[in-house]
Each structure stands twice: as structure tokens, then as C-alpha cells.
Design a protein that fits this description.
Blueprint: E1 3-4, E2 10-11, E3 14-16, E4 19-21, E5 28-32, E6 39-44, H1 48-65, H2 70-86, H3 88-99, H4 103-120, H5 123-126, E7 131-136, E8 139-147, E9 150-154, H6 162-173, E10 177-181, H7 188-200, E11 207-209, H8 214-222, E12 226-232, H9 235-247, E13 251-255, E14 260-264, H10 270-282, E15 292-298, H11 305-312, H12 333-348, E16 352-355, E17 375-378, H13 385-388, E18 395-401, H14 404-413, E19 416-417, E20 419-423, H15 427-436, E21 441-444, E22 460-461, E23 464-465, H16 472-478, E24 480-488
Length: about 500
């Protein structure tokens, strides 16, 4: 995939017009293995001219790609999903090396993206218009879902396989061309996935990749040829992208920050619930926008704290490629510093440190990694920094509520609305929760309720800007323009006078 840029570090290329090319930038940044601090490669901060070249390549390719038969597009994604399956182990190993998550979790990252590729292969059944016959005398009306043109995606570090696969397969399958900007922290697995897409038959220029930070993001937001942008990342950057790109007249969907709560009712199955909470809080070292970062213990469930702590102590912290690891490193030294700082602030603000993961027990060879072990803060309340801010680390905050109504009120008062869950054996309580909670995605005894691609990711409130979510039925509408056609065909002997009314009779 890479060619030597220096004697010591390979470079990550750009993908423009079907060719992997070396950037002409003078600014490069290191891709660092978060478990060891080893420099894996160097990634370019692409120039504005290179972004423009990628967009122009996509615009040229759109002229023919938009006319490609839908069955031909579908067959490319059938081939693509086969290639991803064949290269699953390679992709997972590459992802773990640059991102840090365990190999099993890395395979899950790739697999959840693969599901969207499989969905894209069924585009023939997804991109269907509507028809009403004889809406007036001899008049039919029907709709066409036509591609927009050049679209773009900006993806985060925490899911370098899944989230790019949420974006470009559906955009391309619907007839658009695409410019992707992956995270500069871990773009190697994303580039490998793009190489496999080319191998599957995606034509040159249909998929392009540029790397960079703020300057490249702004260039994408401002470029007049780009029609739509999909973003997943922080609230700060997502708000900037939405405002800047919307002002430039683009369609924008931004999936952003979160503070996901799981409500635990006293009747919940204790062992199953504790396992689910800890997996959702500490998996991927808590670096998931759908991670459970707050557990609201209701009534007698407040007595579960010791059991939660004891089970969390059994989780093994270490390198993602080491056997038995449960919690890998954070993505960077800066992320580790931020998480440990927030833990300290939580204690200062009155939270009780039930389990301290700031100096975890590590296997030999892990001393240089960005490790924070499972941490549990009890007695957390709204207004504390650890409650109000998205920690994005392996920290579970325990809050308390007297009743289910109190728990619902707490969650609805939080500005974010990405995901939530309730653990209970009561159907009545579960139904009350799903009806009254003001959050886009709800789990019932499911801690991370990310839907399969038959449905759409539906975060809400401050966690989302834009009407339509990624993948599923909603994203087909996002990546297409609805054109309505009203048609009348006259018989040769039809005659009549001039009609100056609005009626179609």
C-alpha cells in the first residue's frame, strides 16, 4: 500500500483519479501505534490544490458513473463485500496497529462496515421512485431518485473501517462520486479498504481520498463542486462543518458528540446487565460515540456498585494484539492526558472514585502505551465535568435516581441524544421508557443500540445536525435528488381548446 517516503517511515498516499500518488505537501504527521509509540507511517496534510484535483477527478467521473446501470453498480459491491471478507484478518491487524482496539473489536469494526456494503449491493431495491397512474385525464406522475454529483465524507479516528464504509459505498451505489477525508491519526486501514474497492471494480475517479486537518476540511466545505457532506466526529468540528458547508449551499449530515445513559431498574437481571454495562463502557477503551458513559441506578439497583467494581477489576488492559486483552490503549498521549485530567476533576467536584484505572497493571512491553484502565466514578451528578463532558475514555459514571420517571427526566435534560438504554424485565417499564425518552436510538436490554443497515442511524438533538442519518433508507434520500415528472401523452386525434386554469383536467 505504501512506498518509502524516508528511509525510516513509509508514506500514506492520496487516491486521485484511480492512482495512488505522493502528496506534494511540505507538512506530514506521524501515524503512531498507541500501544508502543512506534511510528508506523507518515500521512500528508494535503494541499488545497490536491483537494481540488480530487474533486475535479470525481466531477469528471460522475459524467459516466451516473449513467452506469444500477445492476452493474450492484455487482461491484457484491464483489467488494467478498474481498472485505477475504481480507478480514489483514484489515483487523492493520486497524489494531494504528488505532489500538483489540483484534476482536477491530474485526467487529470492519464487519459493521461490511454490513453496509452488503446493503449497498441491494441498491436496485433501495433507489426506487414512485408512480401514480392517471392522476388526471391521461396524466401520470412519477418520481426519480437521481444522484447529486460529487459528495464528500469526513471520518473520525475511532472507527477507521466502519464509518468510511457507512459513507462512500452508499454514495457511490446511488450514482454519486466521492471524496473521502479519513482521520489523519489512523488512515491506513481506510486506504486499504479503498484499494479493495478499486479492485472490486470502482472506476477511476469515482472514489478519491485526501488527507489532512482543518485546512482540508475547510476546502471540502467551501468547494463549489461538492454537493453533499457526511461527517462523523466531535461536536466542535461537526458544528463548524455544518455551519460552513450549509452556508455554501451543501447538504450536510453531522453525527457528533454524545453522553449516553443506561438506566438500570432493580428488576433487571444483575449478571447480564453488569456484563453489558462494562462491555459498553470499556470496549474500545470507551472511544465510541455510542459508549455507555453514564449508568443511572434506580432504587435498589444502587446496591450494585460493589458488584460492578469487582467485575470491572477482572478486565485485562494491554495491547490490542495481545491474547486476552479487554481494554486497549487510547489513541494518543493527548487523549490519555485529557481522560486522566477529567477523572481528577471529577474527584475534586465530589464524585467518589470506586475504581481507579489511571495506573493500570500492564504486561511487559506496554509501558510506553497510552493506557487508562477501567475507571468507575460513583455519585456523579449533572453539573460535574465528568457528567457534562464527553470523556471518550474507559470511564463509567454512576448516577442515581429514585424512580424511572426521575431517570427519564435526567436523560431528557441532557442536551445530547445519540443513544440510551434501559435494563429491565418489565415490558410496561420498557414501553414507558421508549415512549417518553427524548433520544434518537433506544436499547431495551441492549447497551449500544446501533441499528443494522436496514434501518438508519438516528441520533438526535445536540448529537446530530441535519435531517437524514447515515446508511439505511434515510441515506438514499440524502444522496439523491427527488425529481417529479408529470406526463401526458395525447392520442393523435385528441383536440381541445386553450386551458388557462391550473387544473390538469
Amino acid at each position: 500500500m505504501t512506498t518509502a517516503h524516508t528511509a525510516t517511515a513509509p508514506f500514506v498516499p492520496l487516491l486521485i483519479g484511480g492512482r495512488l500518488i505522493e502528496s506534494q505537501t511540505t507538512h506530514w504527521t506521524d501515524i503512531v501505534n498507541p500501544a508502543t509509540q512506534q511510528v508506523l507511517a507518515r500521512v500528508p496534510m494535503a494541499t488545497v490544490a490536491e483537494v481540488d484535483a480530487a474533486v475535479q477527478s470525481a466531477a469528471e467521473a460522475f459524467k459516466t458513473w451516473r449513467k452506469t446501470p444500477i445492476g452493474q453498480r450492484s455487482r461491484i459491491f457484491l464483489k467488494y463485500q467478498q474481498l472485505i471478507r477475504e481480507h478480514m484478518k489483514e484489515l483487523a491487524a492493520m486497524l489494531t496497529a494504528e488505532q489500538g482496539k483489540t483484534l476482536a473489536d477491530a474485526e467487529g469494526d470492519v464487519f459493521r462496515g461490511l454490513e453496509v456494503v452488503e446493503h449497498a449491493a441491494g441498491i436496485g431495491n433501495l433507489q426506487l421512485g414512485e408512480l401514480a397512474n392517471n392522476v388526471a385525464g391521461g396524466v401520470d406522475t412519477y418520481t426519480l431518485l437521481q444522484p447529486l454529483g460529487v459528495c464528500a465524507g469526513i471520518t473520525p479516528f475511532n472507527f477507521p473501517a466502519m464509518i468510511p464504509l457507512w459513507m462512500f459505498p452508499m454514495a457511490i451505489a446511488t450514482g454519486n462520486t466521492f471524496v473521502l477525508k479519513p482521520s489523519e491519526q489512523d488512515p491506513m486501514v481506510t486506504m486499504r479498504l479503498c484499494e479493495l474497492a478499486m479492485e472490486a471494480g470502482v472506476p477511476p475517479g469515482v472514489l478519491n481520498v485526501v488527507h489532512g486537518a482543518e485546512e482540508v476540511v475547510n476546502a471540502i466545505c467551501d468547494h463549489p463542486t461538492i454537493k453533499a457532506i457526511s461527517f462523523v466526529g466531535s461536536t466542535r468540528v461537526g458544528t463548524h462543518v455544518y455551519q460552513r458547508a450549509s452556508l455554501a449551499g451543501k447538504r450536510v449530515q453531522c453525527m457528533m458528540g454524545a453522553k449516553n445513559h443506561a438506566v438500570v431498574l432493580p428488576d433487571a437481571h444483575q449478571e447480564q446487565t453488569i456484563n453489558a454495562l462494562l462491555g459498553a463502557a470499556f470496549g474500545a477503551a470507551g472511544q465510541r460515540c455510542m459508549a455507555v458513559s453514564v449508568a443511572v441506578l434506580v432504587g435498589a439497583a444502587r446496591q450494585w456498585v460493589p458488584a460492578l467494581v469487582e467485575k470491572a477489576k477482572t478486565l485485562k488492559v494491554g495491547a490490542g494484539d495481545a491474547a486476552g486483552t479487554d481494554v486497549g490503549p487510547l489513541i494518543s498521549c493527548a487523549a490519555k492526558e485529557r481522560v486522566t485530567r477529567l477523572i481528577g476533576r471529577g474527584i475534586e467536584e465530589g464524585a467518589r472514585l470506586a475504581l481507579d484505572g489511571r495506573q493500570p497493571t500492564l504486561a511487559s512491553g506496554c509501558a510506553e502505551g497510552n493506557y487508562v484502565g477501567p475507571t468507575i466514578l460513583a455519585g456523579v451528578k449533572p453539573g460535574m465535568s465528568v457528567y457534562d463532558e464527553e470523556i471518550f475514555g474507559p470511564v463509567l459514571c454512576l448516577a442515581e435516581a429514585e424512580t424511572l420517571d426521575d431517570a427519564i427526566a435526567m436523560i431528557n435534560a441532557n442536551p445530547n441524544g445519540n443513544g440510551t438504554a434501559v435494563f429491565t424485565q418489565s415490558g410496561a417499564a420498557a414501553r414507558k421508557f421508549q415512549e417518553e425518552i427524548d433520544v434518537g436510538q433506544v436499547g431495551i436490554n441492549v447497551p449500544i443500540p446501533v441499528p443494522v443497515p436496514l434501518f438508519s442511524f438516528s441520533g438526535s438533538r445536540a448529537s446530530k445536525l441535519g435531517d437524514l442519518g447515515p446508511y439505511g433508507k434515510q441515506v438514499v434520500l440524502f444522496y439523491t435528488q427527488t425529481k417529479t415528472v408529470t406526463a401526458r401523452w395525447f392520442d393523435d386525434d385528441t383536440s381541445g381548446g386553450v386551458n388557462t386554469t391550473i387544473s390538469l383536467k
